[in-house]
Each structure stands twice: as C-alpha cells, then as structure tokens.
Specification:
The protein is mainly alpha-helical. Among the domains are: about 40 residues, no CATH class; about 45 residues; about 45 residues, no CATH class.
Length: about 375
C-alpha cells in the first residue's frame, strides 16, 4: 500500500465547528501528525511579529517639571498669529492675541488623540458592554463610556465614513516632518530676504532635500508650476490657478489657523482686530511715555526758573541795599577824611584818607564806580 503524504489541512479540518481526522488516517500515524501540527503551531507563535516598542506618551519632564518661579521662554509669532519659534512646545510666554491659535492647536491635538484611541480600542462589531472593559488607562471611565455611545451613533458613523473617503483623496504627503508651514515660511523669508510665494512653499514642503517630489502626484503638480514665480500671495495667484480654489475657510500653504479673510478679506477678522488693538495699545503706551518725559522736563525747567527768579530777587535786594548804603556813606564822606578799610569778614585791614568821590576816577587801572565812591 502506497503511503499517503498527509498535510495539516487534511488532518485538522473544520466540520460543524469541530476538528476531526480524515477517515483513512492510520492510528499509528496520529501521534506523528499531532506532533507535527503542534510543532507548526509553536513555530507560528514563536515567529509571530512582536509589537514594536514605543516610548509611550510624551511627558516632557524637562519642561513641565520646571519650578514655578522658573523664567518662561519667550515664543515668537508671525503676523498670522502662528508660532515660528523652535521652542514653542516648551513653557512659554505667549503675547496677547495669540490665544485663538492656541485653542485651535489644542483642539487639533485633542482630535488626533481621540482618533488614535478609536483606532486602537474601538470595534463597532462589539457591544458597548464589552468595549467598556477595554478602556485605555489614560481615559476616565465615564468619559470612555460616553465616547463609545457617541461613536456608535448612526450619524457619527456616517460622518466617519465620509471623512475616510475624503482622507483617501489626500494623495500628496508633505515632507516637512515636525516643522509647521509657518516655520518653513519663516526660514524661507530669512533665506530669500522676502516673503516666499506659494509656489516656493509647495516645493519646499512637498519635495525632499534633493528637490525630488514625494510621489508622482506631487511631481505632476510641480511640473505645472512655473519655477521662479514671484507673484504675491492671493486668491488668483499662479499657485491657485494650478491647484484650484482653496477649500472653504483655509488657505493652502499657510498652516493652521489662517483663513482667507485673514489675508485678503475686505473686513478685518478677529485676529486682525487683535493685531489692531495691540498696535493701538502700543502706540498709546509710547505716547504716554513721551508725555511723561515732557512733563518731567517741564517740571525740571519750572524748578530751575524758580531758583533763577529767587536768585535775581536776592541780587536786586542786595543791589538796592548797597546803593542805599553808598548814598548814606557818600553824604557823610568828604575828600581828605580818614577812612577804615575792612575785608569781607568786617575786620579792619587798613587805614587811609579819601582821595576822591568821583566814580569815574581811575585808581590802580580801574574806575572807582558808584559803589566805591
């Protein structure tokens, strides 16, 4: 009898949910087949790819563990209220008016985190009671149950399917990595000495360091964009003519938080109003500082004038007193009369005789003048 070459699928096959042996299998071969099957199963388990080790949630202990009185890090923002500093994820000192972008950024990060949670822990085929027990460690129990009920709503499922279809239409991945479009724009502005066009931004954000497109779709778009285009950003610039109209509420190549009304709207939006208020407040502060300096100078000048007036009055009183004394002395003095000469302290330093009462007479190369007469 020719020996049959049995396979695992011939030995263990499913019949009504049970695993049975083929009818013509010899019992003395059963042990061999079982051992071979178990060895194959063990090999599959051993060779099964293990989950990739990851670093887990980002804690940023060197940032959030700073002492409360540590000096905050100043963050630089552009005119569109987007951070362009390389340290914007650290503890920050945010200028006034930047809070709308912070809220939008927080909302985006929260949305992306919920998306990862849904992808890893949610299965629409399982009942909610089972999914509740699969709660992630970082989610509160009551919030997890509410989130499951929300995801199981038919309307939410329809939204999810539509969003998946729209996501599949995004066929041009960027090559910016962790850098935002705002940071790329700041780098190009410093390098070019002017604001880059959207054509230049597209090449910088969707091509690698060797200027090679990230995929064929990007290459097709790049070939249609004229190199060296320097037309300013606008709804009908060269980039818009090739890529098409911008999506509602967004401007391509500008990043998070920038909408058409921010750049070419007829009426200022909230961010523009914030900027106008900040500029007005800065102008008012400068004017107030200028007024304070002028008032300080006026006070100093007023005090100086007061001292000058007091000095002049004192000199006038002294002059009148000297003239009065000279008049009295002149009435009593006579030529040839004996007089005493005194110093500034009133001590007698010399004895003499009056030679003349004429104030114009020259004595020792100088006129006597009235006070000396």
């Amino acid at each position: 009898m020719r020996e049959k070459n049995w396979e695992i699928k011939d030995i263990y096959r499913t019949r009504a949910g049970k695993k049975v042996l083929p009818e013509d299998a010899f019992h003395n071969e059963l042990k061999t087949y079982k051992l071979g099957y178990c060895h194959e199963i063990a090999s599959e388990v051993t060779n099964k790819p293990q989950p990739k080790a990851t670093r887990g949630p980002t804690l940023m202990g060197d940032i959030w563990a700073k002492v409360p009185n540590a000096k905050p890090i100043v963050i630089e923002f552009n005119i569109n209220f987007q951070p362009i500093s390389t340290k914007w994820q650290e503890r920050f000192e945010v200028p006034e008016g930047m809070h709308p972008w912070i809220l939008k950024s927080t909302n985006k990060k929260w949305k992306n985190w919920k998306s990862r949670i849904k992808r890893c822990y949610f299965n629409p085929a399982l009942p909610v009671d089972v999914l509740v027990k699969r709660k992630p460690d970082r989610v509160v129990k009551d919030q997890w149950k509410s989130l499951l009920l929300h995801w199981n709503m038919e309307e939410v499922k329809e939204w999810s399917e539509r969003n998946k279809e729209h996501r599949q239409k995004l066929v041009m991945p960027s090559t910016t990595g962790k850098l935002s479009f705002a940071e790329i724009t700041a780098e190009l502005t410093e390098r070019l000495g002017r604001a880059p066009t959207r054509v230049e931004l597209f090449a910088a954000c969707y091509c690698d360091s060797e200027c090679d497109p990230s995929n064929p779709e990007v290459g097709a778009k790049v070939s249609k964009l004229p190199p060296g285009s320097e037309d300013p950003l606008g709804p009908n610039d060269t980039f818009a003519k090739v890529m098409g109209k911008d999506p509602p509420g967004r401007v391509r190549m500008t990043g998070l938080g920038v909408c058409p009304s921010d750049l070419w709207g007829s009426n200022p939006n909230r961010n523009a109003c914030y900027q106008m208020v900040l500029e007005h407040q800065e102008l008012v502060q400068q004017q107030q500082a200028t007024i304070a300096r002028i008032e300080e100078k006026m006070d100093n000048t007023s005090r100086l004038l007061t001292r000058v007036e007091e000095k002049l009055q004192h000199q006038q009183v002294s002059s009148l007193g000297n003239q009065s004394n000279s008049t009295k002395l002149g009435q009593n003095l006579k030529v040839g009369r004996e007089v005493l000469l005194k110093n500034m302290e009133g001590k007698v330093v010399a004895l003499g005789w009056l030679n003349s009462l004429d104030p114009n007479q020259v004595v020792g190369g100088a006129r006597l003048r009235t006070s000396c007469g």
